[in-house]
Amino acid sequence: MDGTEVVVASSPVDAGISCWDLQSGAEHLRHRSCASPPHGLVCVADRFFASSQLRDSSSSSSSGSIFYWSWSKPQVEVKSFPAEPIKPLAANREGTYIAGGGLSGDIYFWEVASGRLLKKWHAHYRAVTCLVFSDDESLLISGAEDGCVRVWSLFMIFDDLRREEAGHLYEHSFSEHTLRVTDIVTGYGGGNAIIVSASEDRTCKVWSLSTGRLLRNVVFPSIIDAIALDPGEHVFYAGSRDGKIYIAALNAVGSSSNSYGMHIIGSLSDHSKAVTCLAFATDGILLVSGSEDGMVRVWDTKTRNIFRIFKHAKGPVSNILVVRRPNDSNPRNSQTSSKKHGSFLSPPLDKYLNSSDENEDAKVFIGCQTTFSKSVDASYRSCHIIIDQIKELQQQGSSAATEMEMERLKIDSQKSVQMVQQWKKMYENLHQFCVNELLDADHAGVSN
Amino acid sequence: MVRNKASSKKQQKRGVDFKKIKRKIGRKLPPPNNATSTEIKSKAIILPEQSVASEKAGLAVSKKGLTLKELLQQTSHHNPKVRKDALIGIRDLFLKYPAELKLHKYAVMEKLRERISDNDRVVRETLYQLLKSVVFPGCKEDNQGPFISMMMAYIFNAMTHLAVDVRLMAFKFFDLVVQHYPPSFSLYAEKILQNYEDILQKNQFYLQDKGKLKNALAGLVRCLTLLPCNTREVVSSFEENLAGQRVLHAFEPDLPKDPAGFDLIIKKLRDLVPVLINCFHEFIPLVHATMHLDAQSFDCMLYILQSIDLAVRFFVYGTGKSQPGLCSSIHPYEGPDMTMWDQDVSPVVLKKLLVVFPLNQRHDLSEKDGDRYFILNVVITEIFLHLSEWSYPPPDLLEIFLEFIENALSGKTSSAAESGKAFREKHLLSLLPFIPKLVSRVSRNWSLRILQAFTKAFKDSNPESSVKLACLSIIEEMLVPRHGIPSLDASDPEILGHQTTWIRELPLLLIMLGDKHPSYSKVVLHLQLRLGQCALLNSAVAQEYDNMQYSLLEFYCTCLEERSMFYGPFIKLARDSQELSVCCLYYFSHLDSSLLKSIAFCCLCDDLEPFMLFRIIEVLHSAYKAGHIQIADHISFFITLLSRFRVFPEEIYTVMEGDKKMSNRGIFKSVTSVVSSCLLQMGEDSLVFQILEEVILDQMSLRPPIDNICAMLRMLLLLDSRPTRLSDQSVINLSSFLSGYLIDVASGIPEDDGKSTSSIHVNTCHYYFLPCFLLFTRSEKFLKLTLDVMGSLITENGSSPFSPNCILNATDHTNRIRAIVEILILMHKDVKIQRILSSCKSEIDHILQNMLLLQASKGMNMSIEERHNIQCAFDRLKCITSTLPSATPII
């Protein structure tokens, strides 16, 4: 695997984005000026961060803001201003799309590489509070202040005909929560997965995506603000406002014998203040939790002990991410790369739907899997990006084109070096062989 | 003996003259006169078992002492009376020994089924009763499939029996089977429907007796209700599952509905419906001829209509074709069958059935007849509405029906009598679910008229009636947009008018329902919550929703004056309803301070569960965070809570703190901590502090009990910083009554008697002193002022100026002095305070002086014990002051 695993945290007060190495505990570069709401920070394909910003409603009349940071620079690199304040953000694993939930209940769907607003639809009656992609990234699941959890199929959203036939956009609409939905996690298995939603009504509910039914309702002693699903889906962890992280069973048949309530089998507790966010490390054992007191704690879920504590800021922590930091962006060549990649990050996100060219560009192609595709981001993109890049390549003038050329030359030289080494080795082997032969012959001659 | 005599006589004769006796051949001698017949004749008497003599000790017997085997044999006896008795015997036996039935049920059924086509009416009736009351209920748990199938062949046989009575009885038997084993209908649907069709077609020959026709039709209705036509049932069974607490990843067997039989059923029903309509038509002349409608023919007509209704429903919903004009090619059943149904049955229904509508709308009918016609009309309307889901009806016909619906809703057709009204309401229930669709489809004029009538029906109906409940669900459907169904166009002012009327009715309804009908209240609250959730969709509705809070005051609590509260139904509702109503609060875009006040009083009510109290705080804080409550209102809510909460018992040094029944101090402590964590999240500490300072000082001047003061002080300190943010004026105010507070707390400490309790007391004491001590460390001036006040209190006459509520007033000087010394000693023990104390030596000296003064002036009036106590206190104080480090070196 390339890159080291890092913990990334941000807060709703302006305390920047801090990164720590999960294993060593060393702190990386701290990115500046970020005030993100819960679920408002995403790492787009491990390349850069995107975060929606909390701004005073009075100062910036009606538009919201989404900022981008690259790994190597502390300053905001790209600023975009969508039509209304955006709170939750979600990006798919490859970093092709970013989805954002607006204050009015609209969901915005952008293409990262071009910044185009591909779709915008009215999803909820009140502000959207959380957005997640399902495991196979064909479904988008949103929760809102009105207590509704809705499941959207991306196919359906771009398929006008079927949408009209069905009469509604969503696949499922779960409205059993009575208050604001605070967090949603999805399990594995794409369309057959389970999802768990937490709400201010003190419950977490487990839903089946395939049947669209409520499978389980777990009532907690306090409001749950964050949930994390165990990779084996045996239990889920629920960070509550009373400072504990409750462990609720998914597989076992519920028993109400314990002190917390039905299905709750234990708790992790050290936080003096409310737990605001949770994330699992990739090993599935370390659980990272952010708290209202500004601390980030790393728990070992096997032993239920604290493994490490980071201090983020004085204010509360609102977002925690565990991501892989790519190796190539170490500080040594960051200077050169940032200079060279002046426009490396994607363009800002569009404010409005651009209806004129929507029809011709709605198609999506699979990018060619060349050797240098890694440096040129993801493999899915809409055709007009490809067209642009082809143009650039033809003109041989643009920065991206030279960069690709560079990349190719580098690989060439690498190959040549390898070849040279191979030759060397062969030569040495041959030399050794000949010497041995000669010696043996000599030896035989002497003995004879 | 006789014989011996005779032979001896013969021998004597022969001996006399040896005369040969000549005998003629072929002739027998006549028997002698005195001969005794020696022949033995016997007849066979077959006694398989003698009932009296046989061994029956271990066997189950009926009342007449017969075993099951005997009884079963007797069921095929040629005498009907014996058969009947045998059946009654079986019944007795099974009632007595239920286990016997389980053991022998197949054997029993094998015999009993033969009696289904028995020629004797009484035997059939007895069998029917036997099956109904004993056999079927007894075999409920077992696998009934094979058991039923044993019977079915005989039932079908009976259905084609020559005797009409047997045939009709067979339908009755089948009805019984279906009642106990519903799947049997779908298994045999085709045959059954065929049989019904046959018998109904020839009804003029067979069914002159309306009673029999009625029975047959009742069975048909029951069968047809088993067809999958009820969309609502699916929903309800789904909701039952919601509470399902099962294993998540378990394998779920899904049972696809076997649709193979649908084709056949559709075909049969298509034939059956015209027959039913013909049947109905035979009653029409009767209706027109006479005004009076007798019960029998009414029942028949009703059953016929219901059957047609069910058949139509099956076609419209059961086969998955509910949208007119929507040609989805997904469904397999709308092939040729559906189109044929469309072609020949729908027009028949329209032409023959619906044209007779409305039946006898004359006004000179008696009330009973009027009601009967009303019911029939309602069912016909239902049929019409189901049909119109499917194909658009001719407009003139639609008008007639719309008018009927309007009249029915607004109660114009109903008689004035109260009983009649309730009766009609019951039947309205079936029409109500159509209203949302109807309103969205018909012309604006008509939809307004219907809405008008609906609103009237909603307002007029009894709060506890099922019509009200149904109306509520209709309102939800019309206000809250759902899948596919377009909600009402709220831009139309007249529709909006109706919507506001409904919304305004909700809080009133809640108050009217009170706590007597918890399930009804829950429905209303649920609707309210849904409304709140989607209120933003439309500004007018949101406005109405916000206005609702003023009428909700009464639901929570109203207070006319200080201390006289009228708690609304909220307090007494079940916990889930309470939670719902609290959740509704979150969705008000602006929570009015009057409502907050009313909720605060509810929170202070002793009857409210602590769980609900915490929940209310939680939800209100969420609402505050979402910007629905103003900061000043929110803070004053908290302060009200803390300052008015009644802690019992007031004695603070009780040992049993954990016991909730004895004391709610523990709850109050956790309320304090919850409120303080909320306050910390409210924003800039210094700003919140400024708001708090004034309010808390105001509240403290009212001298609440110790616990409340302590809680408020803690609040204040939480937001305070070091050095204190308190203004000079408030420091002076605060110090004057905090000294009193300290004395009150300290004077409550009982004399030391045992070590174990005293440590608890010190802990308790510490809880109350801590906020004051913190204040002292933050402001030296505050300590000085407090000590000054204490000094002056020593010499002051009269009772304590502080806390009239407190039981343990430091009324007399001795107690007061003891308390002050206790406080100083405690301060001295605290390292931080000790350091500050050293700078206040002059104040302590002042206290000592005052004590001496007191001794000098009042010493004469005191008892020796009192004087001794004061002296002790004086010495202790002296002792610690001497140990105090001098002020200068430290600072």
UniProtKB/TrEMBL annotation, chain A:
GO terms for cellular component: nuclear pre-replicative complex; rixosome complex. PROSITE patterns: WD_REPEATS_1 (PS00678), WD_REPEATS_2 (PS50082), WD_REPEATS_REGION (PS50294). It holds the Pfam family WD40. GO terms for biological process: DNA-templated DNA replication; negative regulation of shoot apical meristem development; rRNA processing. Residues 322-347 are annotated as: Disordered. WD repeats lie at residues 121-154, 174-217, 268-309. Keywords: Repeat, WD repeat. The keyword 4Fe-4S does not apply. Residues 328-337 have a biased composition (Polar residues). This is Uncharacterized protein. It comes from Vitis vinifera (Grape).
Automatic annotation (TrEMBL), chain B:
Residues 500-852 form the TEX10-like TPR repeats domain. Its main location: nucleus. Keywords: Nucleus. Residues 1-37 are annotated as: Disordered. Residues 1-13 have a biased composition (Basic residues). InterPro entries: ARM-like, ARM-type_fold, Ipi1_N, TPR_TEX10. Residues 146-208 form the Pre-rRNA-processing protein Ipi1 N-terminal domain. It is found in: Nucleus, Nucleolus; Nucleus, Nucleoplasm. Belongs to the IPI1/TEX10 family. This is Pre-rRNA-processing protein Ipi1 N-terminal domain-containing protein. It comes from Vitis vinifera (Grape). The lineage of its organism: Eukaryota, Viridiplantae, Streptophyta, Embryophyta, Tracheophyta.
